[in-house]
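[Automated response] Your request has been received and processed.

Submitted sequence:
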Amino acid sequence: MTQPAVHVPVDDYDGAPAHAAPRRPGRSVPWTGLAVIAAAGLPVGLLWWLLAPTGLNLLTRDPALAAGSNPETWLPRDLVLAGLFLLAGCLSGVLIAGNRPARLATATVVLAVAAGAAGALLAWGTGVFAGSVWGAAEDTSASASIAFSLRAYAMLAIWPAAVALAIFLATVFGHSEPDQAPGPQA
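Generated structure:
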C-alpha cells in the first residue's frame, strides 16, 4: 500500500519531518532575556543607593537630604526607586517584545512579568544591602526608616507592571508581520 504524497509549499518548509507538529512562531521562551531582566536588579539597586536621598545622594547632593533622620527624605528615596523601576520595566518590556510583539506566547509574557518582579526584589535587597554596608551607621531606635530602606512596599509592583504595560503597548502599536507570506504577485 502506498502512502499519499505530502505537499508542502516551499515557503513553509523548515526542515522538520512531515509527521512532526508544525512549529508556531513565538513558542520558544527567551530565557536569556528573562535572566537579563531579573539580573538587572543588581545595578538598579546600586543606582538607587547611589542616587537617592539618605544613600550616597548623587542626585541632589543636598546635605539636608543626606541624613535618614530627616523624614522629608523618605518619600524622595522611595520615588527614586519608583522611577528606576519604571525605566527598567519599560526597557524590559521592549526587550522581550522585540520585533514581533504580536507573536509572544502567553507563557513568555507571564515569565517576563515574573522576571520583572524578581528584578524588583533583587534591586530592593541590593539597595538595602549597599546602604547597610557603605552607608553611615544611624540610630534606628526611633524609626526603621531612618536606615536606607523602602517604606512603600507597593513600589515593588512598578517594575512588573511596567513590563506588562510595555509589552501591551508594543503589541497594540507595534508593527506585526502577517503569519503567512503573500503569494507571488503578477
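Summary generated for your ticket: Helices lie at 31-39, 41-51, 74-97, 106-134, 158-173. Residues 37-173 form one domain.
If you did not submit this request, please reply to this message.
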